[in-house]
Amino acid sequence: MKKRVVKQELAKTSRHKNVFRNLIKDLFTYGTVKTTLAKAKSLKRNVDKLLSKIKDKNLSDLRILAKKLGDFTLSEKIVDYALKHKEKRRGGYVAVRRLAVRRGDSSVIAKVVLVDWVAKPLKIVKKPTAEKKVNKVKEEKRA
Asked: What domain range includes position 117?
């Protein structure tokens, strides 16, 4: 007999797939993501399934992830993370923490965090300002 088991899933349109693709990319790029509670719960379920499928660092696992994410280098990073933490834990790679209620529509905002994630600092490349460009052009004209 089927009981009242309800899974909260979002629509499977291409727009929602792209939203989740970008959320997963941001989660593995930065280690944390802020989103609504419904998206956070669904994201947790998807990421845990994705990480539990990874067995080894072989080409087929990388291609499966690259197909889901659309980024081969990020899929290598995800496989490294999964294999490193698979020994420590069986599941629960993602934690969802409730933050606050959004003011405009009263939806609950949650923070999705990768457990045991070590964030590497991003390299910030400074672009030359307009003044430096103008000075460089003036120097070239003088010479």
From this structure: 14-142
Give CB contacts under 8 A, 24+ apart, made by 16-25: 20/46, 21/68, 21/69, 21/70, 23/112, 24/50, 24/68, 24/69, 25/69, 25/71, 25/74
Q: For residue 40, what is the domain's CATH number?
A: 3.90.1030.10
Residue 36 lies in a domain: yes
CA distances, 126 to each of 1, 62, 123, 129, 135 (Å) = 63, 33, 10, 9, 17
Q: Report whether 32 contacts 97 (CB < 8 A).
A: no
pLDDT in tens, 59-117: 888 888 888 888 888 888 888 878 887 777 777 888 999 999 999 899 999 999 988 76
Q: Tell me the whole-structure pTM to 2 decimals.
A: 0.71
Does residue 62 contact residue 76 with C-beta atoms inside 8 Å?
Answer: yes
* Structural domain contains residue 5: no
Q: Which residue has the tokens 């409730």?
A: 98
- Please count the structural domains in the chain: 1
